[in-house]
Amino acid sequence: MFISTRGNSKAVHASEAIMRGMVPEGGLYLPEQFPTIALADFESHLDDSYQDLAKWILGLLLDDFTEEEVAACVEAAYNEENFEHPSVTPLVKLTEGSYVLELWHGPTAAFKDLALQIMPHLLVTALRKNNCQKDVVILVATSGDTGKAALEGFKNVPGTQVVVFYPDQGVSPMQELQMTTTEGNNTHVVAVKGNFDDCQSAVKELFADQDMIQKLDQAGYQFSSANSINWGRLSPQVVYYVAAYLNLVRREQIQLGDPVDFSVPTGNFGNILAAYMAKEMGLPIGRLICASNENNVLTDFFNTGTYNANRPFYRTISPSMDILISSNLERYLYLKTGGDGEQISQWMQDLKATGTFTIPQALQEAMAEDILAADADAETAKEVIARVFEDSRYLLDPHTAVAVSAAAKADHLVVVDATANPFKFVQAVSEALAPDKDVSEANVLDLMKELSEVTNTPVHRALAKLSQSGERPHPVIEIAEIRDTLMDLLPKA
Ligand SMILES: *Cc1c(COP(=O)(O)O)cnc(C)c1O
């Protein structure tokens, strides 16, 4: 069963937690007790495919899903059409003692695919298990990456419609092209005149609009979200930590039981939390390194015990880490306080009211046993990209480069999560390799071709097929038109 991090709600099964997204009273769902895995069990899964590992681990983390239900979701998500690499998340040796876990082989070239390719199937399964026969309408406000990953995840999934709102002129040319070229009979993209916050507020209002909810209900629809705090997005991320560890054992780089560190480019704290959950379940993880860019609120938190979101917000070359409120940190705090929901409620209230909260020193010290934090600015990230290419002929994207820099803190063999393919951030990567060149006005498709030639690295297949001619018409609207636009887009409304 799943309980609330704020101790304020009744326990529910996984399917209900996924259906609801977050605890209605406020708070996030966590298993009442984590399943544990003995070393001998890991050993017996040493030769499993990624799909088989996913069936095993998700079977443990989704208490009321049947074996058949989990298997169907896994097979619909992690197949060759969606992930062209046979091991789904290949592990590449960078130097002696350091590896890169490539989490970008999915359809949008970023790690969110690992969660968002399976989450729609988990959600539809959860709804049907709870006797809801309505079609789900997924609304997403995006500043770029999540929108495309949600579109690809929900594309052509029966019983779903996905509508993505993005700020007109507020996303990168690559991100816009990725979204507006999405295929599928249930995918909708809308550019909203305003910034990301306007977009996000408008979508939040839609979720709360009772009149709208009633109209949609009559038409056979119900709202849901694909938010990164949903258990259906978090739990699939545990799988690749197990896969990476077992891969190292198979390659005789470690012996089963040896500690391995992971360095994780962090924004909303979901990916690194999944690693911590793997550790709680018994995977021999040494330390986790929480890597941040100029928005280094987490580095300061782990180093001082004070979380302080009252600081300038920077737009960086690693935009998916540009976050000042890391939602999933709440789950880690809950686990580290031994489940003190009242204390978590208090801190979250403080954070909301004042932008800051402070934890006791003893807790800060206990956290340092699991997590070390480090940050790297754009200049450092670009230097890392240039140096690693020079030394290893391996191209990093700016998010991964931040984590490679932070990995200097590791005590053991270290695996760096590569969260995006370098061609997805072609501008920053090109600048890193040729600092004197001005690429600000260059066409991204031309830049990709050039970077590929210069570095002798193939363009990611999902990006290679992008072309301006594949753009589908999409509405560009004023914020006030968002409600009517949504009604127009939904076929039954
Ligand atoms: C979302 C994202 C991150 C941050 O992951 P969190 O789970 O939010 O911490 C890092 N890198 C890339 C490329 C991402 O898309």
Automatic annotation (TrEMBL):
<dbReference type="InterPro" id="IPR036052">
    <property type="entry name" value="TrpB-like_PALP_sf"/>
</dbReference>
<keyword id="KW-0663">Pyridoxal phosphate</keyword>
<protein>
    <recommendedName>
        <fullName>Threonine synthase</fullName>
        <ecNumber>4.2.3.1</ecNumber>
    </recommendedName>
</protein>
<dbReference type="Pfam" id="PF14821">
    <property type="entry name" value="Thr_synth_N"/>
</dbReference>
<dbReference type="InterPro" id="IPR004450">
    <property type="entry name" value="Thr_synthase-like"/>
</dbReference>
<feature type="domain" description="Threonine synthase N-terminal">
    <location>
        <begin position="2"/>
        <end position="78"/>
    </location>
</feature>
<dbReference type="InterPro" id="IPR037158">
    <property type="entry name" value="Thr_synth_N_sf"/>
</dbReference>
<dbReference type="InterPro" id="IPR001926">
    <property type="entry name" value="TrpB-like_PALP"/>
</dbReference>
<feature type="domain" description="Tryptophan synthase beta chain-like PALP">
    <location>
        <begin position="86"/>
        <end position="407"/>
    </location>
</feature>
<dbReference type="InterPro" id="IPR029144">
    <property type="entry name" value="Thr_synth_N"/>
</dbReference>
<dbReference type="Pfam" id="PF00291">
    <property type="entry name" value="PALP"/>
</dbReference>
<dbReference type="GO" id="GO:0004795">
    <property type="term" value="F:threonine synthase activity"/>
</dbReference>
<keyword id="KW-0456">Lyase</keyword>
<comment type="similarity">
    <text>Belongs to the threonine synthase family.</text>
</comment>
